[in-house]
Amino acid sequence: MIEGIKEIGEFYKLYLGIQEPYPYQLKVWSKIKEVKSPLLIRAPTGSGKTEAVVAPFLSQFVENKFTIAPRLIYVLPMRVLVNNITERIKKYAHSISNNIAVKIQHGDIPDSPFFISDIVVTTLDQFVYGFARVSHQVGRHIDIPAGAIASSFIVFDEAHMYRDGFTFAIMRAIMEILYKSNVPFVVMTATMPESLERSLFENINLKEENKIMGDSSIKSEAKIKLMRRPLVNETEIFVEENILNKMKSKKTLIVLNQVKRAQSVYKEIKKRLGLSDDEIVLLHSRFTRKDRDSHEKKAIEFMKDKRKGVRVVVSTQVLEAGIDISAELLLTEIAPADAIVQRSGRCARYDGEKGEILIFPVVGNKSYLPYPMEDIENTLNWLMDNPDFNIKDFNAVSEFINVLKYEAKDYEARDSLIDLYECVLYADTKPRNIQVRKGKPVTLLVIDESIGIEEGKKKQSVRDIMKNAFLKTDFKKSSISTDIGVAWGLFKNKMIRWEVVWNYNQKEKKNKLDIVDLLKSNKNVQEEDPRIAPFRVYILSKNNYNELTGIEKDEFTSI
C-alpha cells in the first residue's frame, strides 16, 4: 500500500528509475489519488510533468486498487510527440508488468481506435473524433470510444501548443463536457499565458489549490542577445563572419519561421562553411515521413556527439516539441514568447550547461507569418524592455509569456461546437461538421515516375505510368501530410497535376484505384480552385522533391 512521501519516493525509484521526485510531483500524486479534478499543472519543459501524472495512475496496478480510473488517455497536439511520449510511458508501465497495454492512436498508428487499452496516447483530433462518434476506424461501433473516454482519466499535455483560437474553442468545449460529466482530467503546460487559462476555464470551477506550479530552478545558463539585422530577407542572407566562426566550435541550432527561409539558410551555411551531409541537417514539415524521421535522428546524433567539429541543425518550429537536443549556440528568428521559450529549451538544456541565444528580427512582406504580427511585436518589445531576462528562470518565463493574448474563439468554431454539444445531448444523431483545426489537411505522395515505366510496353500513357508508380510506392514512408494551402501553392506553380482517387466499380462491387489528371479539361488555375480540396491525396513528382531540403520552390509560409 503506497501512502506517505517515503513510499512514493520508493515507487519513483523502483518503477520510474527516478531517485527522488520533485516536491510538485508529490503534490500532483496526492491530488490525483484523491481524484481532485480538474488540475492545471505548470512546469518547465523537461521537468517531469509526464511522470507526475503517470506515476499515481500506474500505482493502481501495484495496489490492485483502481480508485482513479481503469484507464489513462494521454492527449497531445502532435503525432511526433505521441510517438516519443509513448515509449517513455511504456518503459514505466512494463517495469511494473508487461501486461499493462500502452497503445498509440493516431492517423499513422491506429492501434486503439476504441480507446479501451490500459493507457492510450493520442492526438486531440483523434480524441475528439472518438468522443463525438465520428471516427471512421470503428465501423458500426461508434459509441464504444465515447464510453471508454467517459470512464477514463484524461491528460491534456502541451495544452499551449495549438496557438489557434479555433482549436482552443474545441478544447474548451471538450473540457466543459468532461467537467459536467465528472470525468477526471488534467491540463499540463510549460508556457500557457494567463489569457488562455482564463478562456479555457471560463465555465469551469478551477480551484486555486488545484493549480500546481512546477519547480522553477533550471541549473543551466543561456544568455540572450537581440540582433539588429535579420538572418535572411527577401533577397539576401546575412550570417556574419564572427557567427560563422562560433559555429566551427559550438554545436549550433538555427530556427527559422518559414520553410523557404530555412532552406535558404541551410544552403548558405553549408556552402560558406564547406560542410558535408554528416555535419549539417535540415528539419521542417515538408519532408516525407521517411526522410523526416531520418533527419530527426541525425539531428539528435549531432547534438549528442562528443567529438570536436562542426555540427549544425537548421530547422523550422517543428523541433519545438518532441526532439530532445541541446545546442551550445542558438540562432532564432523572433517569434511569439512561448515559441522563443520552447526553442531556448533546446539550448543548454541540461544541468551545468552554458549556451548563447541570438534572436534576429524578421523583415519583408509577410515575414512575420505563420504568426500574428501583434504577437511578434509584443514579444520583441518585452525583450527590449527586459534586457536582463533569464530565460532559464521559470518564474521570469511565466511573466514573459503573458504578453501573449491567446484565447478560445467560439465564433470561428461555431458549427463544430454546435455539432459537438448536440452529439452529447442526442446520442442517436451522428455529427457531421466537427473539425478540430482551422486549417484543412491534404496528403502529398512523392513518386518517382521512372519506377512506373514497364519494360516491353511501347505506348504507355502518362496516367498508366503514374498509376504503376503509385502501386509500387510505399505510401506511409513517401507521404507528406500538410495544409491545403501548400497543395494550392504547388498546384498554382504547376508542381501538382495528378490526384489519387478510389472509384466504386458497380460491376465488380468494390473500390478501384484511379489516377486523375487535374489539368485534362482545364489547364487554367483559378482562385479557390475546387480541384484542390481537403482530405485528398495528390502526387508530387520526385523531380520537385529533394531528400536533403524537402519540397522545392515551396512558396507557402507555414511550418
3D architecture notes:
The chain has helices at 5-16, 23-33, 49-63, 79-96, 124-131, 144-150, 165-180, 194-200, 241-247, 259-272, 289-304, 337-344, 373-385, 394-400, 414-425, 462-471, 475-478, 484-492; strands at 39-42, 71-76, 102-105, 119-123, 152-156, 185-189, 211-213, 221-226, 252-255, 280-283, 312-315, 329-333, 354-360, 441-447, 479-483, 496-505, 510-517, 537-541, 545-546, 550-551. It has 559 residues and is of the alpha/beta class. It has three domains: 5-213, Rossmann fold, CATH 3.40.50.300; 221-392, Rossmann fold; 441-551, no CATH class. The strands form four sheets. It has a seven-stranded parallel beta sheet with strand order 3-4-2-5-6-1-7, sandwiched between helices.
Write a short abstract of this structure.
The protein is an alpha/beta fold.
Q: Tell me the name of the CATH class of the largest domain.
A: Alpha Beta
What structural class do you assign from the helix and strand content? alpha/beta
* General form: globular
Overall mean pLDDT stands at: 87
CATH architecture of the largest domain: 3-Layer(aba) Sandwich
Largest sheet: 7 strands, parallel
Number of helices: 18
End-to-end Cα distance, whole Å, is 49 Å
How many domains in all? 3
Name the poorly predicted regions. Answer: none
Q: Look up the CATH topology of the largest domain.
A: Rossmann fold
Helix content: 25-40%
Strand order of the largest sheet: 3-4-2-5-6-1-7
